[in-house]
Amino acid sequence: MKSSVISKEYLALQTDISNLQKEWQKKLEASTIIEKQTLTEKQVPVIAQTEVVINLEQYKEWVFELGDLLVEKDPKLINDIKTIKESLNDGVVKRWADEVLAFNQLFFAKYAEEANVAQWLPYLIAEHAIRPFLRVVSEVFKEDLSALETKGSCPCCGEPIRLAVLEGKGSKMIVCPRCEAKWQQKRLQCSSCGNEDHKKLSYYTVEEDKNLQIEVCEECNSYMKIIDTRKKYKKLTPFLLDVNSIHLDIIAQEKGFGIPKEEVSS
Ligand SMILES: [Zn+2]
Ligand SMILES: [Zn+2]
Questions:
Q1: What is the pLDDT of residues 178-232, one digit of tens each?
Q2: Whose atoms come closest to the Cα of 181: which ligand?
Q3: Which ligand is located closest to the Cα atom of residue 220?
Q4: InterPro entries of this UniProt entry (predicted)?
Q5: Domain limit, last residue, from 140, 161, 191
Q6: 122-136: burial string, b at 16+ Cβ within 10 Å, e else
Q7: Which ligand is nearest to the CA of 148?
Q8: Is residue 1 domain-resident?
Q9: pLDDT tens, 132-146?
């Protein structure tokens, strides 16, 4: 996969974060985080209609570990990380977990401003440290995800969808880079609006690599990166597939896709 749009250092950092998350996830016991139950709301993601229990001690430990990794990669961050660590009393840790689950980027921007640390830093750490918990939830509910109808967003965690893989005989499975949920989608159907009018769906292949495609829908103006992982890219997690295919997002967005239709026409 062409990765000239992202630097080697960036990719190495993302890989390290992904590996840390795998290690963390092994320490989690599903029954302490989520109770398997019948989902009653079809249009609401799992985490918004169940109670996800975050062990705040563990969450805080991972926030610290991630901070240490970032300092190791970029020693200039040492003071910012020190400030963040000092601020994380029990109340603040709880708030971080709540706000990151609610995608409240504004909260973290304000936090960064008040703590006088790099703007991007608190949200990145808060988000990556919560992901192992979300991945346990998606695993527990994996059989139920395709029945939910959270169009355009992940039925488990609510993240906007943008990535699918082709498996087996060519089944299109949508994967979430955030919670690693995976569910099947009809091959010729827009994953965001459900449009099945083939004339309004187009597929672009990218460069010389037949394994990479962009699906675009003229009905709702969304796009989906489709990666055939049957020969290549097998070992990459959904998160790393997403990072490695950022150039597809750029191509799709340059063509004007990814912005909801109402916003384009207004
Ligand atoms: Zn998700
Ligand atoms: Zn669509």
A1: 999 999 988 888 988 889 999 999 999 887 788 999 999 999 999 999 999 998 8
A2: 1
A3: 2
A4: FdhE-like_sf (IPR024064), FdhE_C (IPR056796), Formate_DH_accessory (IPR006452)
A5: 140
A6: bbebbbbbbbbbbbb
A7: 1
A8: no
A9: 999 999 999 999 999
